[in-house]
């Protein structure tokens, strides 16, 4: 049997802020939510997915994380593909106005493509790209 990557789970400091970020910037939707049923609101778990990909891959957000103080040279990140360079520029402009732009848009040789980076409310880097060999823009191939 070949394993299939289905989800990534993260403990985050501010669950609602992270849900809003991934909904607003990444277009993800809550596809499942539960708590442990205790009277104090309990332990809330939220699953996020891209519309139409709910059975392919999700991000699970759990409360109680320590946050992430990701150093500038640490390029660990989540990657989202966009349909054009203009879409990358639009995300970067919005992120800059909201104070969460980490990397300004830049062009790198194939397979990296054109990208920018944001910092989510928990401190994780989130890349938005065009022209990589994955997702929208992949059709263009090298030099897209």
Automatic annotation (TrEMBL):
<dbReference type="InterPro" id="IPR052393">
    <property type="entry name" value="Cadmium-induced_rsp"/>
</dbReference>
<dbReference type="InterPro" id="IPR004360">
    <property type="entry name" value="Glyas_Fos-R_dOase_dom"/>
</dbReference>
<dbReference type="GO" id="GO:0046686">
    <property type="term" value="P:response to cadmium ion"/>
</dbReference>
<dbReference type="Pfam" id="PF00903">
    <property type="entry name" value="Glyoxalase"/>
</dbReference>
<feature type="domain" description="VOC">
    <location>
        <begin position="4"/>
        <end position="131"/>
    </location>
</feature>
<protein>
    <submittedName>
        <fullName>VOC family protein</fullName>
    </submittedName>
</protein>
<dbReference type="InterPro" id="IPR029068">
    <property type="entry name" value="Glyas_Bleomycin-R_OHBP_Dase"/>
</dbReference>
<dbReference type="InterPro" id="IPR037523">
    <property type="entry name" value="VOC_core"/>
</dbReference>
